[in-house]
């Protein structure tokens, strides 16, 4: 049984806090936690992220990516005709179907996906609405001080 300590990742990422909690729950205590295909989650900018999955043997026609609410779902399945066309003496490249789900944080959007050299790259961007962004509040004079200054000037 493997246990991954994801606590260092909590400090260095923004936007995936909930996802790391879900991943931590999945890997702790469950021996049947999905481990295929392997993937990386990296931070590429202040509010930009990239999920990279190793999907050797799959083409872009075999993979579907769906984003619904706060869930990103990646599914892949080889068609039967591709699997049965050759007789394999040894099959070391896994071409089994998979479905991987990621819980995305609020305001995280999928910006695009690309498949190159057997790696599926999914780019994500966290866009905080203008109303939720922090803003500076100017410090002004109190109403009593402004009245006192006006009466003294008169």
TrEMBL record:
**Which keywords does the record carry?**
Stress response
Q: Which InterPro entries match?
A: A-crystallin/Hsp20_dom (IPR002068), ACD_IbpA/B (IPR037913), HSP20-like_chaperone (IPR008978)
The record's annotation in CDD domains points to: ACD_IbpA-B_like
Give a single Pfam family match. HSP20
Q: Where is the signal peptide?
A: none
Q: Does the keyword RNA-binding apply?
A: no
Q: Where is the SHSP domain?
A: 30-142
Family assignment from sequence similarity:
Belongs to the small heat shock protein (HSP20) family.
Q: What is this protein called?
A: 16 kDa heat shock protein A
- Source organism of the structure: Hartmannibacter diazotrophicus
